[in-house]
Sequence to fold (223 residues):
Amino acid sequence: MGYIKNGDNMEYDFKFFENAVKALETEKRFNHTLGVQKEAYELGKIFIPDKADKLQFAGLLHDITKDFTLEKHLELCEKYSISIDKSNIVSKLLHAKTGCEYARELFSTELVDDEVYNGIYYHTTGRKNMSLFETIIYLADYIEAGRTFEDCVQLRKYFYDNISTANSLNSKLEVLRKTMVLSFNLTIKNLIDENKQIDSDTVEARNYFLMNKSVFKNISLEE
Ligand code: DGI
Ligand code: FE
Ligand code: FE
Fold:
């Protein structure tokens, strides 16, 4: 339901999925979600055009459990054997881990395959060696047009100002890498100012983009 499989290609009935997600999110969250699905599609067009629709789909599902109560989150953790400690309850990191499981349960493993699943799983923290797909979902969440937080505005401007003058694939990937470093710097600075714990995946993701200047080097944009 909600899609047609054409060989390897999925055709999504986005209206169908939008309605399903809308029923699970507050109005404010759903507006953010619509922004993320659009941004994921746009970034997909720049970096992996073949996967722009799939990125849009993952963007639509990325915060599917974010408005669930703590009780419901704990119920999902029990059901899917997701380990919980006090820190990820307090820091709201749980919704990424419950979200991918819940999305898979709702829409099947065929639709929520490992790529979509990991896109949701790592959308808040990132991780070292994260894929281009995961990177796009993470960045789309940060810079979607509806975000007005100063850091988001700064990151969006940094990315689009620099991408507009990048002509080759390698220079675009370099803009993406630097944008990711900046995003983690901004997030980590905030977490420190607020005296919050920093997830090890967030630290490793920051170091990965900072230290590894050839991220995504094996990826070709050429059709
Ligand atoms: O779900 P969204 O609000 O759309 O965005 P998100 O999933 O990126 O969550 C953003 C929140 O997560 C924001 O308050 C910063 C926080 N966050 C990101 N990385 C870490 C983190 N919080 C903690 N405690 N530790 C992290 O490493
Ligand atoms: Fe989120
Ligand atoms: Fe989000």
In short: The chain has one domain: 3-211. The beta strands are 3-6, 9-12. The first strand starts at residue 3 and ends at 6.
